[in-house]
Amino acid sequence: MQITHPFHPLRGKLFPLLKTRRVAGVERLTLRGSPDGSLTVPVEWTDRAPPLFCEDLTIEPPLLDFRCLLQLADLVESLDSDTQKDLTDEDS
C-alpha cells in the first residue's frame, strides 16, 4: 500500500498491508510501519481508495471535496460551541 494523502508525512512510501477493518463506519488499513510497530490509516489516504468521480472524466478535480467541507463545518461549529461554553463558564 502506498500513502497518497497530500499532507501525510509518509506520503509516497510503500507499506505491507497487515489487515483491513471498519472502525466507526470508516474502513481503515493497518500497515506494517517498522519492525517495532504498525500504523493505521483510512483507506482514502492510500492508493486503495476508490477513484473520485472526476478521475474517470476529462474534467479537473474539484478544488475542495464536499465531504471535507462538511467535516470542516462540523469542526468549526464544535469549536465555536466549546468557546461559547468557556465564555459562559467564566461569567459564572
Care to count the β-strands? 3
Rounded to the nearest angstrom, the distance between the terminal CA atoms is: 53 Å
Number of helices: 1
Unreliable runs, pLDDT <50, ≥5 residues? Answer: none
Rg estimate, integer Å: 18 Å
Written as H for each helix and E for each strand, in order along the chain, the element string is EEEH
Largest sheet, strands/sense/barrel = 3 strands, antiparallel
SS-derived structural category: alpha+beta
Mean pLDDT: 80
- Strand line-up across the major sheet: 1-2-3
- The helix content, as a percent range, equals 25-40%
Structurally, the number of domains stands at 2
Task: Give your account of this protein's structure.
- This protein is α+β, with helices and mostly antiparallel strands and 92 residues long.
- It folds into 2 domains: 1-50; 53-92.
- It is 28% helix and 24% strand.
- It has 1 helix and 3 strands, in the order E-E-E-H.
- It has one helix spanning 66-91; strands at 17-23, 26-34, 37-42.
- A 3-stranded antiparallel β-sheet has the order 1-2-3, with no helix packed on it.
- The longest helix has 26 residues, at 66-91.
